[in-house]
Model the fold of this input.
Amino acid sequence: MSSGPHLDWPALMRLGLRDLRLHPRAFWALTPVELMIMAGLEGQPAPLTRAGLHALALRYPDERKGQGNDNAE
Done:
């Protein structure tokens, strides 16, 4: 089983078949990148993953080390 990124096939199918009005044969002949370019969505930032969120939390913690919340009840 792959741990790589997963594609939202229902959303891609809505984009291609409904929004772009592609024939199913043309839709399935495209790569996801080609579909995104046709939709004008190329160059969009990748969605934030759990690993990306973790990296941001480590880089920008809510509290600095050694400083606790003195007002906590």
The CA atoms of residues 6 and 28 lie 17 Å apart. The radius of gyration is 20 Å. DSSP finds four helices and no strands in the chain. The mean pLDDT is 82.
